[in-house]
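ok so I'm stuck.
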Amino acid sequence: MKVDRMKLLQRSLIFPVALLVTSLNAQAQDASPSADKPLPVSAERAFPNLTFERPIVVTHANDGSDRVFVAEQDGVVKVFPNDQECEEATVFLDINERCVYADNQNEEGLLGMAFHPKYKQNGQFFLYYTSNESPHLSVVSRFTVSKDDPNHVDDKSEEVLMRIPQPFWNHNGGTIEFGPDGFLYIALGDGGSGNDPNGNGQNLTTLLGSILRIDVDHRDGDLAYAIPKDNPFIKTEVPVGPRGQTAKACPEIYAYGVRNIWRLSFDSKTGDLWAADVGQNLWEEINIIQKGGNYGWNVREGKHWFRPDGKDVDRKDLIDPVFEYHHDIGKSITGGTVYRGTRVPELVGKYVYGDYVSGRLWALDYDVKAGKVKGNYSLTGENLPMMSFGADQSGELYFTTPFGSLYRFRSDAK
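replied:
not stuck anymore, here's the structure
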């Protein structure tokens, strides 16, 4: 979804050759966990009677209904019973006429969906999509389900919470997720193009290149939401000029220094926040997000210096990814969820993710307390580009493809 031929060509041409030189020994060392033996786990078609148009989100309402919701990138959300023999999905919401999507600008459209933690009581859920109000405008909106029909939403119930102008069509991020604290987290890309030309990743005065955290249940002044009182940059002043001028940091920012998170998820057991960040030249990375953390883009890509002016600078404030892999292995990471289901015991507690370009699937076994990778295990798939991962109410994991099918995992252990 995130990489087409034009983008791959761009990656091969941009930036000085010196930045593309990495020793083979270093590559082997950093990528070595990928050589771990495979797990006896494979992907299989889920809901074989159903197909979708560019399914971008798979999720559930956590309301006890065990329904599955699939958001399509052109602005349609569908719902169906969690039955592998299901033959038809119902249109839950259709905002196609106000949502912008085009195949030649395929990082826009409906990109994120999240149900309110109290959805069963209030019927609220939220979307992140590209609006036709103006070019490259991302919005975060609240919708409310019909009181008469649990499988239908009136599109007129929309309340726009945020409007976020984007300078380019790519790197929109778009995952939205509620954390265990009840706040809504929003993953934004750096605004697009190559090399982060506007320096958004390291700029706290813009929302871009950051993960935001907002309170959708309250309001602050003219805002349609509130700023959580413990957000890390509420009182931060940022230098903006040669004479000591400062500006206030955006108080919505929870963490920053990211290029294009695809996708973001909370471990349903531990509450850890995982984010897969798509690289540009050489490295794809997985991060565990900390409040106030700076993840390095565009000073670094993964653990490696990206800008020539950063190579000799000691930047202890930058947080390393918990795992990275080289473009010899894959060129566009798709995250990713820590598996907490029961069908596949081999995956429990592991972060399952893939690569859109190579079509490879893995399960990362990471000890969060020790800060150590225990193994990165390959899974058997069909080498399909995976657009997104998501879970149902029981914690069973699915991934989507641009060809319209959903897949799940099974144990092949004898």
